[in-house]
């Protein structure tokens, strides 16, 4: 299945068929998933507050990035290593994206791990306490097929469960989610960064992208922004390992 993977955008796209399986076969049940204890592994430490609901522009995008800390912090837990956190809205729809395990070639096997719990935390009243928490976890069925389960989406009761690399939606609640690997949207000129540090002179090349043609794990959640009942929010992401 992995050999068929191509580099695809994290943006909206057609549903992808990878061999659909029944939700109960893909991921652990709700009770199993959310009753166990998880030790915190990483937090996207650039916690940001943004007026995501503002109408001044068609779409406001906020990004928190944290790449390559593994080299400096001896952190090698790829499945739990948060790369980027994105938040943006288009019209009345709000999208949150968490990436992990970056720099993957399309021929490499993704690092899905059923023991890692991913979280989006949303503060709607500026008290630095999450008012909404969205939880995601990957699971594998008896046939070796991976799926994702996402729960806690504002405005939606229960969990969405489906295969990886495929958009899973509930039309009635107007929510959709994605878990899988896609072309990394992060852009960075690593060589230019190193040259700038060494010489003290800006040496960036806007056409040189260190992560070009690289895949990253991604968890994407889209829902109606009205479910937050706030004109501005703070968002951060965490991972935990049981």
Automatic annotation (TrEMBL):
A Pfam family it matches: DUF4331
Top-level taxonomic group: Bacteria
InterPro entries, sorted: DUF4331
Protein name in the entry: DUF4331 domain-containing protein
């Amino acid at each position: 299945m992995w050999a068929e993977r191509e580099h695809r955008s994290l943006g909206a796209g057609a549903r992808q068929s990878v061999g659909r399986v029944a939700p109960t076969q893909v991921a652990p049940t709700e009770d199993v998933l959310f009753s166990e204890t998880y030790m915190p592994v990483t937090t996207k430490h650039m916690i940001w507050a943004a007026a995501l609901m503002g109408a001044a522009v068609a779409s406001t995008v906020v990004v928190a990035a944290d790449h390559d800390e593994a080299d400096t912090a001896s952190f090698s837990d790829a499945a739990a290593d948060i790369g980027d956190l994105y938040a943006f809205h288009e019209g009345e729809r709000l999208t949150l994206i968490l990436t992990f395990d970056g720099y993957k070639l399309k021929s490499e096997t993704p690092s899905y791990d059923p023991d890692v719990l991913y979280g989006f935390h949303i503060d709607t009243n500026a008290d630095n306490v999450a008012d909404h928490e969205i939880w995601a976890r990957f699971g594998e069925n008896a046939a070796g097929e991976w799926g994702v389960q996402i729960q806690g989406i504002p405005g939606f009761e229960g969990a969405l469960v489906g295969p990886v690399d495929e958009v899973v939606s509930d039309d009635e609640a107007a929510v959709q989610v994605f878990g899988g690997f896609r072309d990394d949207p992060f852009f960075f000129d690593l060589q230019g960064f190193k040259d700038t540090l060494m010489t003290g002179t800006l040496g960036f090349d806007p056409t040189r992208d260190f992560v070009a043609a690289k895949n990253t794990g991604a968890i994407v959640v889209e829902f109606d922004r009205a479910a937050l009942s706030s004109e501005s929010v703070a968002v951060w992401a965490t991972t935990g390992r049981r």
